């Protein structure tokens, strides 16, 4: 499961935090820095530029990386879920305080912010830093939708891969659409299943379009029986990289 991490941009005045960002964040690492990317990269750039602890070649590496971060729309380190985008502040500490009050992060990394964890805490294996890439959950609509809430808030394209996932009268799909009414970040949903549905367009309109005000683009793919076994909810976040959550049999 992916983690939302508040990362103090002032930390980029130290080279080990730069290494932490590049090695332990992004779609392959299970964490994202949550922040408006341009503002965050700008503040981190200022911290690196003003740092007396960085040798010139290391300072140049960090500032080049941060410049590219601002320009690259497909960068895989910093994102801002749409429901957090309403919060603004004059500095990162105030922004983080307001964000935590709205919805706590999995962890906050800072040398100056109260109750944050520092680099040494991460090296020593702080509990908030532990990741479980595959999790087992109860087979209920509430449990499944709660555990994919982060993926829904991150947005993009969503794929439900489950050979037993029916389109008709599906409480999980209803729970997902209910969550999306408050967060319009998912652009499309593709359901890959082995269950055929008679007149799927008519059924989808009757059970979902007429019930929910906001729905993303929806596609249905029917695969052969026993073509796949595992059950996943997959979100593409940046190019073709995938995020997975295990759905139990």
How can the largest sheet be summarized? 5 strands, mixed
Low-confidence stretches: 238-249
The strand order across the widest sheet is 7-6-5-8-9
Average predicted confidence as pLDDT: 86
Report the end-to-end length measured between terminal Cα atoms.
18 Å
Q: In terms of structural class, how would the helical and strand content be classed?
A: alpha/beta
Number of strands: 9
Q: Outline, from the CA principal axes?
A: elongated
Number of helices: 9
Give the strand content.
Answer: 15-25%
Order of helices and strands: EHEHHEHEHHHEHEHEEE
Percentage of helical residues? 25-40%
Overview of the structural elements:
Mean pLDDT is 86; it is low at 238-249. The strands form 2 sheets. Strands 7-6-5-8-9 form a 5-stranded mixed β-sheet. It is elongated, with a radius of gyration of 20 Å. Helix 2 runs antiparallel to helix 3 (56-71) and helix 6 packs across helix 8 (171-180). Strand 1, helix 1 (15-24) and strand 2 form a beta-alpha-beta unit. It has helices spanning 15-24, 37-50, 56-71, 92-102, 119-123, 141-147, 149-154, 171-180, 200-209; strands at 3-7, 31-34, 78-79, 107-109, 156-161, 186-193, 217-222, 232-236, 242-246. It has 249 residues and is an alpha/beta fold. Helix content is 36%, strand content 18%.
Topology:
Elements: E1 3-7, H1 15-24, E2 31-34, H2 37-50, H3 56-71, E3 78-79, H4 92-102, E4 107-109, H5 119-123, H6 141-147, H7 149-154, E5 156-161, H8 171-180, E6 186-193, H9 200-209, E7 217-222, E8 232-236, E9 242-246
Parallel strand pairs: 1-2, 1-4, 2-3, 5-6, 6-7
Antiparallel strand pairs: 5-8, 8-9
